[in-house]
Amino acid sequence: MFTCDYKKLTLYLSEFKDIAPMKMPEYGEFCLLELKDGRLTGGTWYPDDYENKKSTRGDFSRGTGDEIKVDEVSKWHSLHAYNIAENLDNESLENLLFGDKGEGIHTVAISGFKSFADGDFPQSEQYCLVILNDGGLGAGRWNKFAEDDGQFVYASAMSSYSMEKVWAWTPLSNDDIFEDEMEEELERRKEEELNKNPQTDPVKFKYGIDIDVYYEKALEKLRGKYYWATINKMKKVKPWEIVPLHGWYVFGKDQGTFMGRRYIEEWKDGSTADEFIDFLCEYTDDAVKKSNPEEKFKLGFDIAVYLEKAFKNVKKNYHWLNKRMLKKGDQYAIEQVNGDWEFTIKYVGYAEYRVYDCSSAENFIKNVERDYESLAIRENPVVETYEVPFGHKDLNGWNLERYDVYKMKSGDYKVNVQAGDRVTGGNREFFITPDCFKAETYDEFLDHYLEIVPGHSFGLTKKDLIKDAKLKKFFGY
């Protein structure tokens, strides 16, 4: 890489400009910012009116939901203006000046550079200046994945510099986001210390701190209503645990981990062990009720019976589907898991079957039907495409981007609709069932077609479609 010693390197930046008409950055230009309180940060300039060169109204974006109001900024310095790759190939380089430096000239010195190669990493949410491997300058907020992994986020939609793109980095000034993170980190450490030796409420935990004891006592009560009840069925709804929280054992439900911190929902509906057991009965009642084996396996324990029924139902519309195709998709079985009979599934590419939780035979068959329908579409290649033209179409904040109709090898049709905004997007695919084509007129056909691809949801209404002669011909009318 570069031969200069980043540990000794100081960048002197003096080409700062004031916030003033005709002196603002270009739209989308990334800048180093000096705030009115003297702190340093960075951001991409987004003026409120990008056509008005005299306007000083707008924001400097540092990421999604993270911006600096222009009123907070004193001066700015472009980070797009320089590439210092050649300078960094100088072993004796220690000082690098941008612009003039002297008496009366505003200059900021930046030093203290570190490198991932040395095992140094910023703190979570710390905003840093970075020197990229191509010699460019940038800045970003450290988005920590793990102790030794992360990225520098510098714009919305998680635009970022990966570790592989950064040669050296140094922290800029602390800000509210970073200080909040430091406060949360302090709280996390306090919590860890408290939870090393948690206390136990003898009334709430009179049956001990093994959660299965409480589930077993709740199970005894539930079996009065549902003879088929088991702990396994009870735990199909997110299970409760006994965990340390704020220095005490509590009944808690794991709500997942965010930014390295585990979040626990504490049970607060009572204060005694027996009240919690009654709560467990209520909490798991619906899951147990829906696990009735007489409903779930009403067609017996031969998986072929269920799959044949799903196949015949799908075959009515997806007439080209055959059982040879089914071998390419997910596979199903009925097996005993922890003592309970379960529908199981082995996803394509996986070696083992997993529980496929369905409360009834009908529900399971419908899910298999959806799988078979998707498989049938994948096995039917497209032979012709018509891209439907349209003007601007707003879909509740998203814009319609593509509306494509495909004719498949079997002679059937499908439609793919794509929409998005500046940050994200998505698409939906629809199979046009053969019943639609029983319509004698194109007008009648569109009525059936729009029940599948409704105009109010996907941008093009009957008024839009009926005047498209090429689309009419493409559908065979």
Q: Between the first and last Cα atoms, what is the distance in angstroms? A: 65 Å
Strand proportion, as a percent range, falls in 25-35%
Q: How would you characterize the largest beta sheet?
A: 6 strands, antiparallel
Structural class: alpha+beta
Anisotropy-based shape? flat
The stretches of 5 or more residues where confidence is low (pLDDT under 50) are: none
Q: What's this model, at a glance?
A:
With 477 residues, the protein is of the alpha+beta class.
Description:
- The chain has 4 domains: 6-177, no CATH class; 211-291, no CATH class; 295-376, no CATH class; 382-474, no CATH class.
- The protein has 13 helices and 25 strands.
- It has helices spanning 85-88, 176-194, 211-222, 231-234, 273-289, 293-296, 303-315, 323-326, 361-378, 442-452, 455-458, 462-465, 469-474; strands at residues 10-13, 17-18, 30-35, 40-47, 58-63, 66-69, 73-78, 95-98, 108-110, 127-132, 137-146, 149-155, 159-162, 166-171, 241-245, 248-258, 261-266, 331-337, 340-346, 354-355, 382-387, 394-395, 398-408, 413-420, 425-432.
- The longest helix has 19 residues, at 176-194.
- The mean pLDDT is 92.
What topology emerges from the helices and strands here?
Elements: E1 10-13, E2 17-18, E3 30-35, E4 40-47, E5 58-63, E6 66-69, E7 73-78, H1 85-88, E8 95-98, E9 108-110, E10 127-132, E11 137-146, E12 149-155, E13 159-162, E14 166-171, H2 176-194, H3 211-222, H4 231-234, E15 241-245, E16 248-258, E17 261-266, H5 273-289, H6 293-296, H7 303-315, H8 323-326, E18 331-337, E19 340-346, E20 354-355, H9 361-378, E21 382-387, E22 394-395, E23 398-408, E24 413-420, E25 425-432, H10 442-452, H11 455-458, H12 462-465, H13 469-474
Parallel strand pairs: 1-8
Antiparallel strand pairs: 1-9, 2-7, 3-4, 3-7, 4-5, 5-6, 10-11, 10-14, 11-12, 12-13, 15-16, 16-17, 18-19, 19-20, 21-23, 22-23, 23-24, 24-25
